[in-house]
Specification:
alpha+beta, about 20% helix, globular, 13 strands, about 230 residues, 8-stranded mixed sheet, 3-stranded mixed sheet
Length: about 230
């Protein structure tokens, strides 16, 4: 019950925030269809105080797929069975995308069926007990290899808020967890994030945020923006 109340507070607290506008930053991408130029866009309204908005920008590789991150950073996207967008303080491209060893904001959209199933199931098994029967059924049917999935949270992960459709987490420094399941390498800084189920069978949206100490106060704002858009 306490976790559900925490989620409710997180969702509703933004209702009382001021609305400001942040710059739109288009992100070039590459993938199955080949290179795509960065899209153009207009300033984006966000529910933050103006003094905070001055430190942020909205990075997008097109459509509604985008994320807040510190202003002045660089971004690049990958398109495939799982769409990915990486925002970093250093320039990045298709040949210099992973691993992520330092500060970054990463947004993954993973299909819950087809080629993306194996990737989604790793998170389902760790974070969403309500989906365990589906995972076990896929294993029993031979659709997924047995013995490769661990049911239950990583021992060191902090589950800050959890419902049947959302898990907000923090992976501590020098630890393996939901924060390092994709391309982040553990280092001296924590990785904050949220995993959100969408549709049925559920697709998966995962946000991971690792910021330097002087910008870490922006992490809850970045996470809340994704939750507000996709709750």
């Amino acid at each position: 019950m306490r976790n559900r109340v925490a989620v409710l507070i997180l969702f509703t607290s933004g209702l009382f925030a001021q609305t400001a506008r942040v710059p739109f930053v288009g992100c070039a991408q590459d993938g199955q269809a080949g290179p795509v130029e960065a899209p153009k866009g207009t300033d984006v309204p966000v529910e933050v105080e103006p003094r905070v908005a001055r430190r942020l920008a909205f990075y997008s590789s097109g459509g509604s797929f985008g994320v807040l991150a510190p202003r002045g950073w660089y971004c690049f996207g990958l398109d495939g069975s799982s769409g990915e967008l990486l925002v970093s303080p250093r320039p990045i491209n298709a040949h210099d995308f992973f691993p992520v060893a330092g500060p970054a904001v990463e947004l993954n959209a993973i299909e819950g069926g087809g080629p993306g199933t194996a990737l989604a199931v790793e998170v389902w098994a760790r974070a969403f007990p309500a989906l365990w029967p589906i995972v076990k059924g896929l294993i029993s049917n031979g659709d997924l290899p047995a013995g490769e999935y661990t049911f239950g949270p990583y021992p060191k992960d902090k589950l800050i808020a959890q419902t049947d459709r959302l898990v907000q987490f923090q992976t501590p420094p020098h630890s393996e967890g939901l924060g390092t399941m994709s391309h982040f390498k553990a280092n001296d800084d924590p990785i904050d994030g949220v995993a959100i189920l969408q549709g049925q069978p559920p697709d998966l949206l995962v946000l991971r945020v690792r910021l330097p100490p002087e910008q870490r106060d922006l992490a809850p704002i970045i996470i809340h923006q994704i939750e507000r858009e996709h709750k």
